[in-house]
Amino acid sequence: MGELKTIFQNNAITEANYDFSPLEKNIMYMMMSQIRKGDEPEKYYFISVNELAQKTGVDNSYVDYKNAIERMMSKIITIHKDNGNILQTTLVSSAEYIKGHGIIELGIEPKLRPYLFELKQNFTTYQLELALILKSKFSKRMYEMLSQFKNTGILRLSVLDLKERLSLYDPKKKIEQYEKWSAFDKYVLKIAHKEINKLTDIKFEYKPIKTGRKFTKLEFHIVHTPYQVQFDFKDEDTEMFERLVNKFGLRKDQAEKALQLHAPAWIKSQLYMIQVKKANNEVTNIGAFTAKILGVL
User: Fold this and answer.
1) Considering its fold, how many domains does the chain have in total?
2) Are the beta carbons of 32 and 132 closer than 8 angstroms?
3) 28 with 136, same domain?
4) Looking at the structure, do residues 245 and 170 belong to the same domain, yes or no?
């Protein structure tokens, strides 16, 4: 069985203000799980519709993904930088749908790249598979926030600060959703408490604190227990497609044709041979050589 995949996320994103739906968050999680130190600025990331459905148990349609990504490309993520500046940016810079394969190619907005790649300190870790299976968008965001403090075991913040992170409070317009404590507790906190405690490696309790007659602060007590269940599903076509494009220099149409013509096991054997020849300086243009070997010139 495969191990749970850990996502590393800059605290600035954990604490940022943005409003993503559950599907949009899942797409974000799948992108972030593929990021590696040393990735080239022009690298693209590939999402498998089939793999995401297997991991979440939710079978979204092609139109659902298209609409979700369109929204992601227009939604602003607001980050409060250490120097006092405020950065407003998007996550996704481009999207291309690979016809017939259930694969979506996504590009990352350049302004956000430092918060995804340069993780030397001040970062949050959480488990991809556990974040994916949470249903509520509030549960997903709170799982990230609580994971930031799983080592210290306590998180204190104001109700308005939490609501701002969850896009339930606009500090400029002073517009607040779930203004009544009972509604906020019922539709946000209790749902997150039930889902996170049941489905993830985080268990938490929360204590609301009053100022006068109004609840103004929250104190979360967090217990982290490594999760024992493991997930081993991996979409082979998507993994192979990503390797052919990003590591072996094929065009996307060539990678698509290769997957149509050949079995993944045979392609793997040829890629190993190509890597050996490349290491021995027998190949100068790896893209052209790979295309010739796979018959997709």
Assistant:
1) 2
2) no
3) yes
4) no
Beta bridge partners of 169: 176
Q: Are strands 45-48 and 6-10 parallel, antiparallel or unpaired?
A: unpaired
What the block records as the tokens of 49 is: 């519709």
Choice among 55-69, 114-128, 201-215 with the minimum mean pLDDT: 114-128
CA triple 288-290-296, angle to 5 deg: 80
Residue range 2-21: mean pLDDT, rounded: 81
Q: What is the CA radius of gyration of the chain?
A: 22
Structure tokens at 101: 């394969």
Report the Cα–Cα distance between both ends of the chain, in Å, rounded: 37
Please report which confidence band the pLDDT of residue 43 belongs to, taking 50, 70 and 90 as the band edges. confident
Do 170 and 30 share a structural domain? yes
Structure tokens at 166: 């969850």
User: What is the average pLDDT across 250-269?
Assistant: 82
* Nearest alpha-carbon partner for 95 in 132, 54, 67: 67
In a domain, 83, yes or no: yes
For 293, list phi and psi in degrees, rounded to 5: -60, -40
How long is the chain?
A: 297
**pTM for this predicted structure:** 0.71
Please give the average per-residue pLDDT across 95-99, as a whole number.
86
Do the Cβ atoms of 168 and 178 come closer than 8 Å?
yes
Amino acid identity, position 297: L
Tell me the residue range of the domain where 28 lies.
6-224
| 216 shares a domain with 289 | no
**Strand runs labelled E in 29-136:** 45-48, 77-80, 86-89, 92-98, 103-108, 123-127
